[in-house]
Predict the structure.
Amino acid sequence: MSYWGFPNPTLGFWRENMKKFFIALSSIIAVLFVAVLGAHFYGLQNLSAYQLDRFTTVKASEYLVAPERGKHLASISGCNGCHGANYQGKDFINEAPIGYVPAPNLTPAGPVANYTDEDWVKAIRHGIAKDGRVMVIMPSNHYSAYGDDDLAALISYMKTLPPAENKFSSRDIQFPGSIIFGILAYDSWPANQIPHDEVGGKIAPIIDESLGYGQYLTRITGCYECHGENLAGKDPDSEGSPGPNITRKGNPGNWNFEEFKKAMQTGQTPEGKILNPEKMPWPHYAVMSDVELKSLWANLNSI
């Protein structure tokens, strides 16, 4: 188009600037693509190559442990809550856009078949799989409190489980789960909350009704996971499952020991509320002895 026979300068200016704009836009998109792709692979690398240099291992064969003790610990620690009633494994996360994360088969037919005692220790107490993967779901920050003798009992029990031919695909964390799990939430995974060179090397407290044993039980049974680090309840908007205040200032502060025992063994509170076992896994705790429950009760009432 021209005006009175002269070229339109506005059109040429517009074309030149649009060309520059599209070049700049293409460059920005290319940089963003490379950055996102780099973050994706960086996140996956974080999740798959944890360097655990110093830690205290346990040789289960050096401890005289009863299989019943290991079975008991597996129950009160909720191992069968994530890995299935018979430890056959089950899908844990399987949804877009995160990807796939199984709770693996823990029987000798599963991926733990070639686990040494040291591999079990790394997985249970440190949250690191045999191949160096960060175990994003495993609550090892609580299990890191295990005494060496109790950990030996648990490992010995796991080795005696009947094989369950239950196969699962390998973990597959997809984009943007790679960035969410591997960068944004990376520091929150148990493996990054454990002082690896400080845990272990101690035996479990004597099983009695003492406050000390109650504190130990509170840790290895994962009470803090839902009820917060001070057990005074967890904000529903915070990470992890929300749970009520279970200190003396909470509802259990109005109960006596027998009422607490009934709630732990039957899932029914003195007020007549039925506890949802998916939120409050009381069936795992129902196997606790009176001595254990009294020590747990002593700890809750001390807070």
Observations:
- The chain has a mean pLDDT of 87.
